[in-house]
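Handout for the seminar on molecular recognition.
Each group receives one record of this type.
Step one: identify the two inputs.
Step two: read the structure output and locate the region that could contact thiamine diphosphate.
Step three: write two sentences on what you found, then compare them with the reference statements printed after the record.
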Amino acid sequence: MAPYDQAPSERYSFLFGANGTFIAELYARYQQDPNSVDASWQRFFAELGDEGQAILAELNGASWAKNTAKVIGAADPDAPVAKPGKGDAKGDKAAAAAPAPVAGISPAQVRQAQLDSIRALMLIRNYRVRGHLLAKLDPLGMDKRAQHAELDYRHYGFTDADLDRPIFINNVLGMETATLRQIVDALQRTYCGHIGVEFMHIQDPEQKAWIQERIEGIRNQTDFTNLGKKAILQRLTASEGFEKFLQLKYTGTKRFGLEGGEVLVPAIEQVMKRGGQLGLQEIVLGMAHRGRLNVLTNVLGKPFKAVFSEFQGNPANPEDVQGSGDVKYHMGTSSDRDFDGNTIHLSLSPNPSHLEVVNPVVCGRVRAKQCQISGQVPPSDESRNQVLGVLLHGDAAFAGQGLVPETLLLSELKGYRTGGIIHFIINNQIGFTTAPQYSRSGPYPTEVAKSIQAPIFHVNGDDPEAVIHVSRIAIEFRQKFLKDVVVDVVCYRRQGHNEGDEPAFTQPLMYKTIAKQETTRQLYAAQLVAEGVVSQEEADGMVNEFMGHMDQEFQASTSFKPNKADWLEGKWSGLSAAGADYRSGTTAVPVDLLKEVGLAISRTPEGFNPNTKVARQLKAKQQAIETGEGIDWATGEALAFGTLAVEGNPVRLSGQDVGRGTFSQRHCVLTDQVNEEKYVALNHIRPGKQATFEVHDSPLSEAAVLGFEYGFSLAEPHALTIWEAQFGDFVNGAQVIIDQFISSAESKWLRMSGLVMLLPHGMEGQGPEHSSARLERFLQNSAEENWQVCNITTPANYFHALRRQLRRDFRKPLIVMSPKSLLRHKLCVSPLADFTGDSTFHRVLRDAAPDLVAGEQVRRVVLCSGKVYYDLFQEREARGIKDVAIVRLEQLYPFPDKTLGTELAKYPNADVVWCQEESENQGAWNFADRRIEKVLTAIGHKAGRPKYAGRAASAAPATGLLRRHNQEQAKLLNDALSV
Ligand SMILES: Cc1ncc(C[n+]2csc(CCOP(=O)(O)OP(=O)(O)O)c2C)c(N)n1
Ligand SMILES: [Mg+2]
């Protein structure tokens, strides 16, 4: 039986003597008083961990005496053959007191043999835990690794005199007995060669045993066939040759070459090849700058001539497509590759310079694809086996960026699992000019991966077979256990950070060594020549052949015309780029459907015990639906979700505490008060005949979760994908996702997204950090119709805005300054009529007050957006003002200039005031003022330019003192309404 098939108690049985139970006795003493046994035993028991200790306590009766006797017999051929002693039975307390004599063998001999075994096992265990610390990982040989005390047999009481005595080790390392010399030799070969493996932190016994068996069972080597070896050499030739050719033709041009890490190409290919045999059909890749051009061409099959053409300054996409474009080492692509008859679809996500920020985006894309393949939410494990995320990281970035642990954190969470990402670290032992000792506190850049108990393989990048071997183990492990795996390829960077940089300014010694270092291909070619696998001529021939191919591609590049951009293919077919015209889409819904959804979400199933307060809310919901009056914000939202789901569009909502809702308003996941079972009514409108409403309370991360949802929206344009911030303020923790992806991806990379961001916003006296979603930042980033920024004031308008996301033939992100106090505001309700008939989204809400004076007599128009409208409205009512109109801008971007012009033209004699509750340097003022002025000019309005009524400029978004808040709020209302 292979060790990983054994129950834990069987695996540890060799630790126990039948008659002597030497360890058990020691352990009993240790348990009573740890100091009663010597220090090395204390360490041993402590390090055995819970599992080992539990088994020590439990077990007491294997074949120890027999086996140790055999060993002694082996050591001394003249000694009489041992017979099993008495007291073989489990739990024989009398026999446990002291080692009992075995026929012909003295108690001292038994004891010595047991001690040998235990010491050997302790040594073996510590090699499993720490052997990687002595592995020869650095191809440059500059990483001088100190001997570790616990990896020295003397540490366990052995001396050099003990090296050649056989020791019983119960088939550990594949040997029943072995001398200490043999054991150390096997351990060195297994754990301290070109592969260092960290796996003893994995708590799952099966996973841990699987890795151990893979590593120990075959001595950490794969026997490659000659054909396989030649294939590796060919791939190294291609990855080296491509960089060499670029260096030759475009000397000094930035390309962030892979030189020193060329082995990455066959390593990723191994994941694809072996993955294909294990059911893999699709891989989504994410990576930074380093080696990207090499991966694009040599791995994804982008034509070399296309890259050469881009080097010549030609665009990556055809001229007829608009967009600002991006540098070549940020571009994505997709392709199909065939490995032994298995076709793998590959796509590389475009990414910005910000290192590691693409990670959650890739995870979200993978998850969406898995949902599509399996047609279910959450995706099936089978679909997880079919779609894999592969992330390539730099060593400095993986250690340094907080988004790395934030994304790893998602790996086992129900709402975000993707069945494990394979991480490759291009560990070139440098980050720009910074050496590892300045960029991380631990020995490796990978420590953070232990937080999710991923196995970590460190491997010498100049040993291609070792790298490919661990890549194979990585994909096998991932496919079997659906968990993340890390492959840390220790290599070097032959050039400067980019090809124009001088690395010797800061690392002169390292770069002297690198200058003398033969390339990975040269070393491997020499190895294969020495092994007689290829001749020198054959190896040189491979180089010449590849360089010839480069020449041809270079010739072809001058006339190369890129294909049509692929951005509206596959799931995106049928959609098109947004034109300049305003399109609201058909978002109204027949009243019957509204009622069907409305009643379904106010119901609980038979026997369900809702919280009494929630039950009251449900009753109110039902009443509103039945009477068609007083639909509140959360109900309006649920109507949007439910109607979309019934119409076949999945809805995915994620963010912190979104199931209940931060403000206890949503309750779209109900909890039974007796058994805590959950009920999601939105999935019970038309069971089996509707799309899924997926809702996930997220971990406490903004960047990773927003990035994930953004990635999901990239792969699934027909789902409504929503991320909600707990409070809008916290959105700045995800600013890089907003700036680098959400606001600019369509322009840079022709990637559309219909993601919705809900950002609770409003000055309500809750202090500087619970008031502002930083509307001004979104408005500052608004250009080229990149997204929609809304500050909506009615449930019906919110309903239409959400549905509009999927009811047009293009996709744009929607940023909503969402309400807090309005969630319960008596006036912030809509009639059912506003959801049906010919109702639609209104970018501007006119003043419909029945007692307002005629338009020409209106003395002032107050323009505003968001919650302050209700404050203004109520203040106007309280003061009995009839000649001030209040007009709401529900959408700030794209700015509704035409509709606003029509509205303002109704009040030719009024002055115009922009009223906001945010400070003057914040909110929409600095964005809206010139646009309003333009509108006024365009319609020939005499007001000329708007006046400002709002808080004074401030460094913090809001005061922390409620009294001051109230004073400020009263003043701005007064300023706005006093003509
Ligand atoms: C978030 C972020 N900070 C800083 C930079 C600037 N920068 C670009 S590459 C680089 C070094 C990266 O080192 P490493 O991750 O080891 O990758 P390598 O270039 O060595 O392959 C830095 C600091 C960046 N691109 N992104
Ligand atoms: Mg690096």
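Reference statements: The CA atoms of residues 140 and 513 lie 7 Å apart. Residues 290, 353-355, 394-397, 426, 428, 430-432, 493, 497 surround thiamine diphosphate (ligand 1) (CB under 6 Å).
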